[in-house]
Amino acid sequence: MTKTRKPDSYWRDICLKYAQGQYHFSTGKRPGAKKWKKALEKIDACPLQSHSTKDLFGRSLRCSCGFHKKPEDLSSGAGSSEAGGVETEAGRVSTELGRGGMETCRGDTETRRGNMDAGGVRDHTEAGRGETEAGRVRDHTEAGRGETEAGRGDTDSGASVAGQGVQCYKCNQLVEGDKFSEHLSDHHTEEMCDTCGAKVQGTVGLLNHIQLAHYAAFIMPSPQKPPPKHYKSTTTTKVLPSQTTPSLLPPSSSSATPHHTATPPTSKPKPTSINWKGFLPEQFRRVVQEADQLWIAKCLYEPTGQLKPKIQACWFHPPLEPKPSPPKPGWYYRQRMLIWAPMRMWGIPLKCPQCSRKMNSSGIYRKVREVIDVDSRYYLVGGDYPRCSKCSQPVCPWSQDILSQVDVAHRSLFPAVLTTQLALDRKCMTFLKPRTSGNSSSYLQSAIEEAHSEEWARQTIRYLSDCERHMKMATFVPSAAVYLPPPAFRPLPLAQWFETVHSNDILSHVDEMKGVITSTYGRILKMDSTKKITKKLAGGIGDSAAWMSNIGNEFGQVLNSVLTTGEGAGLEELCQGIVTRYKNAGQTEPEVIYVDRDCCSQSGVSSVAKLFHPWKSAVRLDSFHFMRRFNCGLTTEHPPSLWHLLWQAILLHF
Fold first, then answer.
1. Residue 328, helix vs strand vs coil
2. b/e burial code for range 264-278 (CB count within 10 A of at least 16 → b)
3. Backbone dihedral angles phi then psi of residue 43, each to the nearest 5 degrees
4. Does 164 lie in the same domain as 85?
5. Residue 165: inside a domain
6. Residue 125 belongs to what domain range?
7. This prediction's pTM
8. Three-state DSSP class for 351?
9. How many CB atoms lie within 10 A of CB 298?
10. CB 3.0-4.6 Å disulfide test: which of 42, 316, 425, 522 passes with 373?
11. How many percent of the chain have pLDDT more than 90?
12. Residue 495 lies in a domain
């Protein structure tokens, strides 16, 4: 007996019931045709087969097999399109939506490939053969439907191919194949607004919602509500005696029909806008960028325009405000600020450099400095403006006279070395201190300028990217935005300016250097004069000195030196300076002082001992000049044997 094949309508109903959970296959009951095996595999892989409509993130799941729709939706056109798309494996368009190439769809390709036997090709399709065996005549409906649908695309996407594009199943819009996924995400994906929580369709709908609901409401003033109208009541009420209330007004003659007037509610006064930028001095507005003036004024002033009495921190950074729309270039190049206010911040008393009276703060310093850092710049603002109550003379808050009165711990918080116009951060000065090969002011200037240019390029890229993003948003909502060009790069000063800053930094440590030099002492001192050093002087001071007198210790360290026009001149100030140094440091006077001459005197006190008064140190002639005294009794100028014997005798004696 010939075994008959089940018709396609039977397996389509079985697949629908299996997708709805109303049918379960037993052993040996699954279809044998490839197209229905493929259909069952798609049903098992469909997200809705788990009988859940939401995923872990709460998003709605979509059917990817085409059999989970309602029965009324699966009409002859829709149902046949779903089955026809399953039925013709080689005759469908590429399953991926992003593929641009389209293949010719033929409904009978799969059936021809399935019926090839020993190289023979049968002209009847699988559906036609089944219908002929059953005794029914069908006009190759399945193959014809596959050709009529023009190669309907993947049923997962719900789109159809028409010509060289993909037709969206939701809006029937013809979209290019490689842009179909972008079309779905832009127009048909459910999105949620982060501001108000509203749900919209697609990225385009979200941008339109933001422009209309939030951006437009932000830039457009809210319409003023009309004042409430006064209505008179036309109802006649009879006032009972028990319900009458006392009134301060006399009763009117028409009390039987009172008129009730609705009093408008008292509206709150609108807060007046504060001109924060107007609080800043005019010299501030010349140096501070316009984008920084608002937040700097809020850091320094109260809403009433008065200076804040207490400052809690030194460093202030630009606030993290929302980016302006449309983008403005100044917002991306804002700079931080340092406030130097030792009186208001730490309560350090300052004295007048002239009369030593206590000074008071007279407001904010009118000038602001711009400091060059390693890769950026920042503002230096004086929160104190010290003024003497007697002299009435204001003093710069970061002058050397003021900084010297601040203790070392707070003085180290001042980060800059100042010049006439600009200032340089001390971190940059660190690179000039090492005495290494190739370290110069020109190298430092080029390295810091390169770091500044890289930071400027990063901020410029951010600004231009935001302008491009805002321009794309403006394509959906008309906008007359004007995008200003980014500010030009500001070059750094020349290398000579860095040398000047280095010199100023050294001069600010003169007292410390003097302290290190003058902290050298000794138990044995030696004073000597020479002309060799003065002969090396060149330039305008070449002939200004003839002698150089030095005082050293037993370790060869020089305690002090003096240049004089003649031998012996200026020695008293030199020696008394050494005496004062020992006295101030609490050091004991040296045991012996060696000189090259005037070590003895017929009166009992040598001239050298008088120079070091009131010391009682012994004055001796040094060994080198002692040997030179024998030259007058010798016939030769340099007798080597005699000098050698004298030197050994002197060493043995001492």
1. coil
2. eeeeeeeeeeeebee
3. -65, -45
4. yes
5. yes
6. 8-177
7. 0.49
8. strand
9. 16
10. 425
11. 22
12. no
